[in-house]
Write the structure tokens for this entry.
Amino acid sequence: MSTQRSSMSSTGSKGSPSGGAIFNLTHSNNSFAAGIGEVIEAFVANASKSNTKPIMVEFGSRIMAVGRSRMAAMTGRNALLYMKSKFGLLNATTPLYLQAAFTGDEERFVEVDLDSWEELVEHMQKLRIIA
């Protein structure tokens, strides 16, 4: 029974060896180790949270909230096409591109590389459609 118990606790409640190590630290009799385990557990929980806030998209004086998960499910080119349709720009003859403000520097807009869309979208706070 003790071998079963130690093998169960080594994997912890998450079923992974690293989850088990954190579980063992958190439930340690050593208060210092338990404290370190709690800090690591909080860090892992915070790091695994995905940003679920909407992305604010601007074009001229109009601002629209767009779901982040919807935007994350698209490629950059499809996201631009989707936003063009929402703002009535599908027949625009001038080239359009996107600028974004990112977490940590929400006031500075930079041009978005559409090929890197999937990596960038989770960090975007605001988007601008530029003509």
